[in-house]
Design a protein that fits this description.
CATH topology: Rossmann fold
Radius of gyration: 18 Å
Number of helices: 10
Shape: globular
Order of helices and strands: EHEHEHEHEHEHHHHEEH
CATH superfamily: NAD(P)-binding Rossmann-like Domain
Strand content: 5-15%
CATH architecture: 3-Layer(aba) Sandwich
Number of domains: 1
Distance between the termini: 27 Å
CATH class: Alpha Beta
Number of strands: 8
């Protein structure tokens, strides 16, 4: 277990010649991670639902780093056709992918559905990234050198449960319960992907991370969607007083994506107070996230729901 208590984005090794995809790259942790990758020489594809906001973010990064190599392309994780179109574009444009950062997400919003009829938090946070990873697996495996899939989870996975009888929360919806389920699904997927990559003898590694409590727009979207001015003001106040910066919140993702000590299957998060802030360390996620039977079942259900399969053997079937 590593414990690099002083590690920051300044310690990201040189990324020259490497292609990186960051979902949700136009704001918050995705924006800060994109900036850090670009500062170290990577070419970053900013996969954003809003191309306009993505271009604004690109201009902001270029103002700080005039030599930044950035491309903005549309990706709506709430629409599996958009996921397929993004991957088709990527594979006709690039022949390698060193890091896939599954970062974008929504949190504690009123119930809604994706274009494909999935509950939005489960559909965006888990199923969209599941489909994206499966479709990009070929180019990841063809890329020489260390390649990684980094999936962003949350401390909220602790309260999550996978309800296979009501995955889409059709019968009963609790916004925080649905969020916890999606973040637990992120971990179950990341760990199962690592096991399957190992079984295939692949050079790709799968790692999970969480940002702790970082001040981003993610916390504001729920109150905004509900039209609750009081909750919105309260969350802004909590962010200002308690949260660490979005830049610090990106450190675990950057560590997971670039540190040579990573072997695959780790869970990286801030090592400070209550694991909510501080420099990145390896941590333990809860027992439910390590349940291999649940992970295999979720994998199978996710393949059925998305129509995306992975050309990887199940663990034990090498």
């Amino acid at each position: 277990m590593f414990n690099d208590s002083d590690w920051t984005a300044d310690d990201v090794p040189d990324q020259s010649g490497r292609n990186v995809v960051v979902t949700g790259a136009n704001s918050g942790i995705g924006f800060e991670a994109t900036k850090a990758f670009a500062a170290k020489g990577a070419h970053v594809v900013m996969a954003c639902r809003s191309v306009e906001r993505g271009r604004e973010a690109k201009r902001d990064i270029e103002a700080d780093y005039p030599g930044a190599s950035l491309t903005v392309h549309e990706l709506d994780l709430a629409d599996l056709d958009s996921v397929a179109a993004f991957v088709e574009w990527y594979e006709t444009t690039y022949d390698s992918l060193s890091v896939l950062a599954n970062n974008a997400g929504v949190m504690a919003i009123p119930r809604s559905e994706t274009a494909d009829g999935f509950e939005t938090q489960f559909g965006v946070n888990h199923l969209g990234h599941f489909a994206l990873t499966g479709r990009l697996l070929g180019v990841l495996r063809r890329t020489s050198g260390a390649t990684r899939v980094v999936t962003q989870s949350s401390m909220a996975h602790e309260s999550g449960e996978i309800d296979f009888d009501d995955l889409q929360h059709d019968e009963e919806y609790d916004k925080w319960g649905a969020y916890g389920q999606s973040k637990l699904a992120n971990l179950l997927f990341a760990y199962e992907l690592d096991r399957r990559l190992r079984a295939a003898g692949a050079s790709v590694t799968s790692v999970a991370c969480h940002p702790g409590f970082a001040a981003t727009n993610l916390q504001l979207r729920g109150p905004q969607a509900e039209g609750s001015r009081l909750r919105l003001l309260g969350m802004k106040a909590v962010n200002a007083v308690v949260a660490q910066s979005a830049a610090a919140g990106a450190w675990p993702l950057l560590y997971a994506a670039t540190n040579p000590d990573i072997d695959g299957g780790e869970y990286v998060g801030p090592g400070g107070l209550l694991n909510a802030r501080g420099n990145p360390t390896e941590q333990e996620s809860n027992e439910r996230s390590r349940d291999e039977a649940t992970a295999r079942r979720l994998w199978s259900v996710s393949e059925d729901l998305t129509g995306v399969g992975f050309d990887l053997p199940a663990p034990g079937n090498e």
